[in-house]
Amino acid sequence: MTNDPMLNMWISFIGMGLMFVSVVVTIFAKEKLHGFLRYFLLTISFICLVVAGIIVFLTVFAGPTPE
């Protein structure tokens, strides 16, 4: 990632936010929707989850930043 700890923090917050969006969209789509729109939102939700997983993976394995 980057050497700036604050930027790493904000990037990790984006990853956590994408996870939250994924959960909310999945619950909404499964409870309230039917047909094409349901599968479209579930696909968007899955993409958000994959992107969030990549962000978290990169943030965690980048290691601590120098002080």
UniProtKB/TrEMBL annotation:
The keyword Transmembrane helix applies. InterPro entries: DUF2768. It comes from the Bacteria. Keywords: Membrane, Transmembrane, Transmembrane helix. The chain crosses the membrane at residues 6-28, 40-62. This is CHASE2 domain-containing sensor protein.
